[in-house]
Specification:
Layout (H helix, E strand, L loop, with lengths): L7 E6 L17 H5 L1 H11 L11 E5 L13 H17 L5 E6 L1 H9 L5 E7 L16 E7 L7 H13 L3 E7 L10 H16 L6 H7 L11 E3 H4 L13
Parallel strand pairs: 1-2, 1-3, 3-4, 4-5, 5-6, 6-7
Helix pairs in contact: 2-6, 3-4
Length: about 250
Amino acid sequence: MDRRPPSAAVLVLHGGHENGTEPPPPGLLNLPGVRMRPFVRALRRATRAPRADGDGTEVLVRQVRYAHRGWNGARADALRDALAALDALGEEAGDDVPVILLGHSMGARAALRAAGHPLVRGVVGLAPWCPPGDPVTQLAGRDIVLVHSSRDRITSPQATQSLTTRARRAGARTCMVTVRGGDHAMIRRAPAWHRLTTTLVTGLLGTGSLPGPVTTALGLPPTAEPTEGTLDLDRLRAERGPAGLLPSS
């Protein structure tokens, strides 16, 4: 029996370095890549849709391979790799497959910059690297949810809030979620990071439900204050679905 074409796709972009023209190390030596493996496993479990006849629609979950481990200034190597991966995904799954980009740190920056690609419907950025001068016009019409630890010492939660606000004014639907007590590597409160991310990605895909406050934040007008679109994870825990969408840890 022929498989149905995928209903949607998630493209995962791990972190990296500000500079570095060498390729990422292989396998377990690539710590930024290893860091995203639990997210990939959780997403594959959450988007699996078995049917009795074995012919269920599929959500593809793909990871981007970087040619270089750094962003490297104006070269923006991670962005180039993200766009190439989106083009390849379109060839594999069809030129109308909706895609959610999931990125961490440098990967989140690449996801935000690549969001203007016609396949992209939304971005979930974890501890994103958001330099003040990065453009936001490419985010118009997209759903953008950025998650940042209040204690991050590598990338700036304040810069993330600023980008969320600028993107909303440029026509994006945006929301920021703050993880109190977390860290840049997403090791502290790891189950919370994994579960929240799965909830956000599946919610944006339409295969799950977004927490009510996130939906409300995404619907804010362009003139909304930055604090209106900034949510606290621990307060979101009260917004549990029937399956307990958000963790208690």
